[in-house]
Each structure stands twice: as C-alpha cells, then as structure tokens.
Design a protein that fits this description.
Strand content: 35-45%
Structural class: alpha+beta
Number of strands: 5
Number of helices: 2
Radius of gyration: 12 Å
Shape: globular
Distance between the termini: 33 Å
C-alpha cells in the first residue's frame, strides 16, 4: 500500500478551514471519483483502491490517503493535485 501524507499549516478560523476542506473534497471527488463524508472535524474519503481522511485543527490541515495497487501509478498525480488544491484554497 502506498501512502500520501500531507500537512499544511493555515491561519483560517475553523469555519473557513472546514469550507476549504469541503472545496478540496468536491474537487477531488469530481476528478478522481472519490466519495467523502464528514465525521465531526474529520473528512473521510473512500473509493475502490483508496481510503483516507482529512483532519482539521485550528492551525493545520492533515491529509492521509492510502492507495491500493491499482492507484499506485497515479500517486504523484494525486499528491500534486492535493498540493495544488491546498495552495489555491489556503491562499484564497
């Protein structure tokens, strides 16, 4: 199993951080057909071959995805997309 583990500091209040996470989840859902749901301040992702979560704290967004064998070749593309989306939503 291949793991993507990304931490990103932020200075948003919790409501804006949650909205940023929702925006990221919506974009990843459209691009990679990922299902997601909120459990408190944790956003859980799942689809065939991948599962993970995004944790929100007062100063950090932490994304951890576990990729199955079929998605391993796309690891760098998925990780780049996460970084790109985070750059956009945190600087907004």
């Amino acid at each position: 199993m291949s793991v993507i583990d990304v931490h990103r500091a932020h200075s948003m209040d919790k409501a804006h951080a949650r909205q940023a996470a929702e925006t990221l989840a919506e974009d990843l859902s459209k691009q990679f057909d990922v299902n997601y749901q909120w459990e408190g301040d944790v956003l859980r992702f799942k689809r065939s071959g991948v599962k993970g979560q995004l944790n929100i704290t007062h100063n950090d967004l932490h994304i951890r995805l576990e990729l199955g064998m079929l998605l391993r070749p796309f690891r760098s593309r998925i990780e780049q997309e996460i970084h790109s989306q985070l750059d956009q939503i945190i600087s907004a």
